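In the previous lecture we treated proteins in isolation. Real proteins rarely work alone, and many bind small molecules. This record shows how such a complex is specified: first the sequence, then the SMILES for flavin-adenine dinucleotide.
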Amino acid sequence: MHETLPSSTDVVVVGAGNAALCAALAAAEQGASVLILERAPENEAGGNSRFTAGAFRCVYNGVDDLRALMPDLTDDEVAKSDFGTYTEEKFFDDMGRVTEYRTDPDLCEVLVKRSKETMLWMRDKGIRFMPIWGRQAYKIEGQFKFWGGLTVEAWGGGPGLVDALTKIVRKNGAAIAYGARALSLIADDDGVKGVRVKHGGRTVEVRSKAVVLAAGGFQANAEMRTRYLGPLWELAKVRGTRFNTGDGIRMALEIGAMPTGNWSGGHAVGWDRNAPEFGDLSVGDNFQKHSYPLGIMINANGERFIDEGADFRNYTYAKYGRVILMQPGQFAWQVFDGKIIPMLRDEYRIKRVTKVQAKTLEELVNKLDDVDAARALEAIRAYNRAVMTKVPFDPNVKDGRGTKGLSIPKSNWANRIDQPPFEAYAVTCGLTFTFGGLKIDTSARVIDTDGVPIPGLFAAGELVGGIFYFNYPGGTGLTNGAVFGRIAGTSAGQRAAQVR
Ligand SMILES: Cc1cc2nc3c(=O)[nH]c(=O)nc-3n(C[C@H](O)[C@H](O)[C@H](O)COP(=O)(O)OP(=O)(O)OC[C@H]3O[C@@H](n4cnc5c(N)ncnc54)[C@H](O)[C@@H]3O)c2cc1C
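The predicted 3D structure, ligand included, written as C-alpha cells:
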C-alpha cells in the first residue's frame, strides 16, 4: 500500500542515489522541507550508486588529510601504507588528459577543488570511509603502495553508502517515497513549480519551490542508447540499475533545458559475456573483469585488437567497453597464465563467471567459444615472441615492459603467456552510465537553450553533461554526485527560502 504523497513541499529531489541523497541533505541543512521521489521500490532503490564499490576520487595532500577523512585509521595501518598524494594538480591533469581537455573548465574546477571538503562534510554527517586496500594497492615488501590516485572508499561499498545516506537523510527530516516515478515538471514563465508523479498507479502533482533532478543517465533505455550512442549500443549490457532511463534529462529538455556534453559517449567496461541485461545487486560490480592490463585480449577473429597495457586500469577501463562492443560478435576473451592468475582481482573468482581453463595453449584456444582457434594460437605466440623480457615487470608503475614489433603493441606489464594453467574469461560491453546530459552552472542551476538559468530547477550527478568526455578517471562518479548534489541541494534550499 503506497502512502499518499504530500501535495506540496519546499524542495522535491528526483532520485535516491548518491547525488540525490547529498542534495536532500544539503537542502534540509538550509531549513527546507524535502521530499525525495524514488522510482524504484525500496529493495532496488539507490540507483547506480548502490551497485558501486563505493570508490571516491578526492584530493589529499598527504596522510594527514586521509586521517582527517578516516579517523578510524590506526597508526599501524598508516605505518604499513604508502598512500602517496593526490593533489589538485594531479586531479586536474587526470580530468584533462582522459577527457582530451574537453571537460567544462568551470565545473571541473568545482569538482576538483571541492572534492576534499565535500567528503569531509559527508564524514561530518556520519558517512565512514576507508582505504581501498583490496583493489588500489599492491603489497610490496610488507607495505601497501597505493596507485592511480584512487585511495578512498565508502564503508560497506555502494550498498553501505546508500544505506548510511538514506538513514542520515531521514534523520535530518527528509521524506522518501519509493515507487514514485517523476513524469514531468510543472513549470510556467516564472520557472519550475513542482513535479507530476506516478505513484501507486495514480498520477498526482507535488508542488514545490524548487526541484533537484538527480535521476541518472539514459543507459538503461535501449532506444535512447541507440539513438545517441549509435548502432550496436542496444546490444550492450547495463551494469547498474534498470531505472535510469533518461527521465530526468527528458523532463528538463521538455521545458527548454540545454543539452550539453558528450551525447554519443558513455562509461563502458569489459563485463561478463553472460551477465544479465541489467545489473544484479547480489553480484554488484563483480561481473567486471579489470585485470586485462596483466594479460591480453583476443577477439572472434583470433586477434589482439587493443593495447591492454596502455595505462593503469583506472585510465583505460571506462573506454575499453566500447572497443569490445565494436569487435565481431561484441565479445573478447581475456587470456592469462599461471604466473598472473594469483594476481587477478577478486571478481575473477566469483561463481557466475564465463571462464575456461587448460593445461596447454593449444587446448585453451580450442575452448574459446566462437573464436578462430588457429589464429588465436598464432596471436598468442606472436605476442610471446615480442615481449621485452629484459625490462623488469612491476605492476605498481607503468613499467615500460612492453612488446616490440607488433602492429598492436602492449606498452606495459607484458609477460609471456607460457606457464600452465592457462585461463581465459569471456567479456562483452557493460555500459555504466552515459556522458551527455543537462547543462548546469557552478551553482547547479539548470541552464536553458538561451543560456539562462531555469528558475527553481537544479541538477546533479549522472544526468549532467559537460564533465566527462570519451573516458573517465575511476571513482569520479560518486565524487561528482556528492559535490554537485550538495551544491544543488544548497541552491534549492536557498531558493525555497526566497520564494514565498
Ligand atoms: C557496477 C558499477 C560500479 C561503479 N563503481 C563506481 C565506483 O566505485 N566509484 C564511482 O565513483 N562510481 C562508480 N560507478 C558510477 C556511479 O555509480 C555513478 O557515477 C553514480 O552513482 C551516479 O550517481 P547518481 O546519484 O547521479 O545516479 P544514481 O545513483 O543512478 O541515482 C539515480 C536515481 O534516480 C532514480 N530515478 C530514475 N528515474 C527516476 C524517475 N523518473 N523518478 C524518480 N526517480 C528516478 C533511480 O531509481 C536512482 O535512485 C559505478 C557504476 C556501476 C553501475
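Summary for your notes: Residues 261 and 466 are 4 Å apart (CA to CA). The mean pLDDT is 96.
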